[in-house]
């Protein structure tokens, strides 16, 4: 059987408009000319093959783009011998009809593009799905009113030094987050010796104790999903990926739990990026609604948080039932683990599992922001920015990933990649994906470790940026998150590898090292004081202080 291939320009064709250069040309579609001339005008190249007609590969494109339902080849079999002018004219007309159909396809494509563009513009105008404009309230600042120039002087004036007790607690939580990457090596004696903590359990233990039959059922389900439907659509694949993120055996991040008996606090520590599944959760970044609140959240992190929430629930309920009103819950994590901790924390409140008084502030280290206008959730729950403490290294790329300015061509690419971005208010109004939430703690390590940030005062220290809801503070924070811009960081070869700037400013062990360096620096200042003052201050180094 013979087939023909047609060379068609990728540029849209609008045959209704005639240019002066083409007005006098003969219309090959309306003339009955020979098949040879028709092939010259239409640039038809015949390809002969004895193979069966190839089948189209599975496509993720949505159905109904061109509404064509034809099973016959595009060009009739050319092995037939022309018999008389009648058959030649019939063949020419049949081929011409296919060219007309291709032109009709192009017209439909152009019309569809125009319709999509009109719909996109309409969605951008109303900013959110409800059309009430609430999603438009995520602006960092009013560009018409706030023309503040952000430099080192103005930014430094908004910073405050973090108190000594708070720095100690951050160092403690950074230690736990660093241990989350080596959970099998955790020694209960070490936790007790360093911080008087009691190890409870971990995700690795839960997996080891899982019932073998349950594990086999999960494997069977995965196998069935692989062979059941080879023509799975993109939407079904997303749903399958979301379910995988919620599974215990494919959870993107490991975790462990420990108790502080002196304060009746159970601490949940979630690991960051350390597996393919964790990267999958991070890169599944299209927006979706969080817990029916109408606030948009990073979908991949949200789906993973649902699974971790279910894994945490037995240990949460057991602790709450044991200590009642005295029980406290602390959530913390590094990188994606911090974002997961935040979502689990807020899910406990939106689902009325615990009271706000039972929750310590969430503490994240180098975590990406995952909410668009997350302040709306805090307002609904009666919370303020003190409920979320975001710790970031001065040059860490991860907190900047979704909250820096996105160039227009990148924004347009995202909208073509995923339809939900077309009505995403943060992208349409602010040129970013997700907005910062909570108090910002900024670490500047020693210059020997990493160059100082141009907006921060020189020297090693940890600062707090409060009142992030004020217009001037939002403007300052936006300037900080765009300095350096992630694209600027990624374009340097020195950013990559085990010694690159990306890992240097994001690694959990470096967060711990920087905080401990600040503590040692503070300790040296204490030691240099007179003897009588030193004797009074040394107990501060071993006592426990809350961050709240």
TrEMBL record:
Biased composition (Polar residues): 1-17
Statement: the UniProt record of this protein carries the keyword Hydrolase: yes
Acidic residues bias: start-end ranges: 130-144
Domain Fungal lipase-type intervals: 268-405
Region (Disordered): 1-27, 111-144
One GO molecular-function entry: phospholipase A1 activity
Pfam families assigned: Lipase_3
Alphabetized UniProt keyword annotations: Hydrolase
CDD domains: Lipase_3 (cd00519)
GO terms, biological process: lipid metabolic process
UniProt KW Hydrolase keyword: yes
Lineage: superkingdom: Eukaryota
Ranges of Basic and acidic residues composition bias in the record: 112-129
PANTHER family per the UniProt record, alphabetical: PHOSPHOLIPASE A1 PLIP1, CHLOROPLASTIC, PHOSPHOLIPASE A1 PLIP2, CHLOROPLASTIC
Record's protein name: Fungal lipase-type domain-containing protein
Native species: Deinandra increscens subsp. villosa
């Amino acid at each position: 059987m013979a087939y023909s291939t047609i060379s068609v320009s990728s540029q849209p064709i609008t045959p209704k408009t005639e240019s002066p250069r083409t007005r006098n040309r003969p219309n090959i579609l309306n003339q009955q000319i020979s098949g040879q001339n028709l092939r010259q005008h239409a640039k038809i190249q015949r390809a002969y093959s004895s193979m069966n007609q190839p089948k189209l590969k599975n496509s993720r494109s949505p159905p109904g783009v061109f509404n064509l339902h034809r099973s016959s080849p595009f060009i009739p079999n050319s092995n037939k011998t022309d018999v008389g002018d009648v058959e030649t004219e019939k063949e020419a007309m049949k081929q011409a009809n296919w060219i007309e159909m291709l032109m009709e396809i192009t017209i439909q494509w152009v019309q569809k593009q125009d319709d999509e563009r009109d719909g996109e513009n309409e969605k951008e105008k109303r900013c959110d799905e409800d059309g009430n404009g609430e999603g438009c309230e995520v602006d960092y600042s009013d560009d018409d009113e706030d023309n503040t120039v952000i430099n080192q002087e103005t930014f430094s004036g908004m910073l405050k030094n973090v108190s000594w007790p708070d720095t100690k607690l951050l160092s403690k939580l950074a230690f736990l987050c660093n241990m989350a990457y080596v959970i099998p090596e955790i020694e209960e004696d070490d936790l007790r010796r360093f911080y008087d903590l009691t190890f409870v359990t971990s995700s690795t233990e839960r997996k080891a104790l899982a019932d073998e039959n349950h594990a086999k059922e999960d494997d069977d389900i995965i196998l069935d999903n692989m062979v059941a439907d080879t023509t799975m659509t993109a939407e079904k694949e997303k749903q399958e990926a979301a379910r995988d993120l919620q599974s215990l055996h494919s959870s993107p991040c490991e975790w462990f739990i420990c108790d502080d008996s002196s304060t009746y606090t159970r601490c949940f520590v979630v690991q960051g990026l350390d597996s393919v599944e964790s990267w999958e959760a991070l890169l599944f970044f299209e927006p979706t609604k969080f817990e029916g609140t109408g606030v948009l959240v990073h979908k991949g992190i949200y789906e993973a948080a649902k699974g971790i929430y279910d894994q945490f629930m037995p240990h949460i309920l057991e602790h709450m039932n044991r200590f009642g009103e005295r029980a406290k819950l602390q959530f913390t994590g590094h990188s994606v683990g911090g974002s997961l901790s935040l979502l689990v924390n807020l899910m406990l409140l939106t689902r009325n599992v615990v009271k706000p008084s039972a929750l310590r502030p969430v503490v994240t280290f180098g975590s990406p922001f995952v909410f668009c206008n997350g302040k709306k959730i805090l307002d609904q729950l009666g919370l303020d920015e003190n409920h979320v403490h975001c710790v970031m290294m001065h040059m860490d790329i991860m907190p900047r990933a979704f909250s820096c300015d996105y160039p227009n061509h990148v924004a347009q690419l995202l909208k073509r990649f995923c339809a939900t971005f077309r009505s995403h208010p943060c992208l349409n109004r602010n040129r970013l994906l997700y907005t910062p939430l909570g108090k910002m703690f900024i670490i500047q390590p020693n210059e020997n470790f990493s160059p100082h940030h141009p907006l921060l005062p020189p020297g090693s220290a940890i600062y707090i940026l409060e009142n992030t809801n004020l217009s001037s503070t939002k403007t300052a924070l936006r300037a900080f998150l765009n300095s350096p811009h992630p694209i600027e960081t990624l374009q340097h070869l020195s950013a990559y590898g085990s010694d690159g700037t990306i890992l240097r400013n994001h690694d959990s062990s470096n967060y711990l090292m920087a905080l401990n360096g600040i503590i040692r620096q503070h300790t040296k200042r204490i030691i240099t004081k007179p003897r009588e003052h030193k004797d009074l201050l040394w107990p501060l180094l071993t006592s426990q202080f809350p961050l709240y």
